[in-house]
Write a structure and sequence with these properties.
Layout (H helix, E strand, L loop, with lengths): L7 E5 L9 H17 L2 E5 L5 H7 L5 E2 L16 H6 L4 E4 L8 H13 L3 E6 L2 H8 L5 E4 L11 H4 L1 H14 L4 E5 L5 H9 L4 E4 L1 H4 L4 H13 L1
Parallel strand pairs: 1-2, 1-8, 3-4, 4-5, 5-6, 6-7, 7-8
Helix pairs in contact: 1-10, 5-7, 8-10
């Protein structure tokens, strides 16, 4: 557990065709190379069907995008937490804005992940929910205002107070919980801004997954993390 060094760049592949199947592994290999060259920690969140492929064939830490509040047995079409662990993932996202959970279910997921020795990154949308999530003692909280997700304006420019405010609020609850920020993050300048606001790194998706040149974008992001 607690595999990620900081600052960290965590890339969520969502369900983009550009990073599905073998392409997810190709991106992981590029991330592995850039991380090795720059010393900046990177992690990847493939689709559930691609978890084992990426985990077994790359050295980049692999996080699931989600697992369900589910015990073995009935649950057709759902993702069992034990399956995520068995696939070789080191952690999972929880409560992404595209897959919201109740507070009780977030707590269940965090505790289940700990039992399986998986790290959790709990996604939130504002300062108050960041503080509430921190009380559940996940590994990380990732604050992402939903109105900025997938856009061209980074949260570090559009709403820096939600980042710095979340960092302060989380630290007051539990200093061990780290804070990432996301939504609109595209380049090294955005990463640098996130770190200056107190975050331990960034969570992003389309800025990398849909880029024409993965290595170029990742290098720029990494430079922002170390400048």
């Amino acid at each position: 557990m607690n595999m990620l060094k900081t600052p960290a760049i965590v890339v969520n592949l969502k369900t983009y065709l550009e990073t599905t199947g073998k392409k997810a592994l190709e991106l992981a290999k590029v991330m592995e190379r850039v991380s090795s060259e720059t010393g900046v920690q990177m992690a990847i969140c493939p689709q559930a069907a691609d978890l084992r492929l990426v985990a077994e064939n790359s050295n980049v830490p692999v996080f699931a995008q989600h697992f369900d509040v589910l015990k073995p047995g009935a649950g057709t079409g759902m993702t069992l937490p034990e399956t995520v662990a068995d696939a070789g993932a080191c952690g999972t996202l929880v409560n992404h804005s595209e897959h919201r959970l109740t507070l009780a279910d977030i707590d269940w997921c965090v505790q289940k992940a700990k039992a399986l020795k998986l790290d959790t990154i709990v996604c939130t949308n504002n300062v108050a929910t960041s503080a509430a999530a921190a009380a559940l003692k996940p590994y990380m909280v990732a604050v992402e205002p939903p109105e900025l997700i997938g856009g061209d304006i980074s949260v570090t420019s559009a709403d820096p107070a939600v980042v710095s405010g979340s960092v302060d609020a989380v630290r007051k609850v539990d200093e061990k919980v780290l804070v990432l920020c996301g939504a609109g993050v595209k380049n090294g300048k955005d990463v640098r801004g996130a770190i200056e606001l107190g975050s331990a790194g960034v969570l992003l998706a389309s800025g990398v997954a849909k880029a024409k040149n993965w290595e170029e974008v990742l290098m720029d992001l990494a430079k922002g993390a170390v400048e």
